[in-house]
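Box 3.1 — From sequence to structure: WKF domain-containing protein
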Amino acid sequence: MVAARLPKFIRPVLTKSLESSGRPNNGNDIQNEGNIKTQRVNKNLSKLKKYKKRQLKKRYSRKQLKARKSKVEEKKIKSISETQEEALKYLRIWHDDYENWKFKKLLQSWLIKNALDKKMLPHLEFRIFKRYIKKLAGLARQNLIDRCSKATDSQILDTKEPEICVGLADKEDLSSKHLVCQNNSEYSVSTKRAKKILAILSETSVQ
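Predicted structure (token representation):
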């Protein structure tokens, strides 16, 4: 009732003073405000710590990924060379010591896959491989036929080898000319091997 009699610009001030006078002044409000501030500070600190941890993890993860990639590449190189040695040894044992030879499907698959590559299957082992495939049967035989057929069907570079060596490179650019001729010679080796393998498989039919 007192506030109603006073002017309008004084009423809000008086009502606030009355409300504040009605509250118990025991310091609880100040403590609550302090607790809220400390909670906010603690939350911000925890967020900052988490952010720093994430950044550190990203840095370490990048380094670890690079290290893992290098290790994986090294393992691949080692595994390829080791598998090659095992496959070549597998062929030699079949040829030289057949009594102690044991069939290994994985090594046979590797030989079929790399039969046309002179780097993976050298000349001496390829001669043994030509004897080995005479008794090849089933899906392995068909896979080898398919690979060799694809190689012989795509022999355009092999038939035009002299023209490519002269025509695609300038006379002054000997390095590019050498590379083109080298690639064609490697291609011709694979097609020659494919033709030899197909001839052997056509002569020897396994039921």
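Summary of the box: The CA atoms of residues 19 and 141 lie 98 Å apart.
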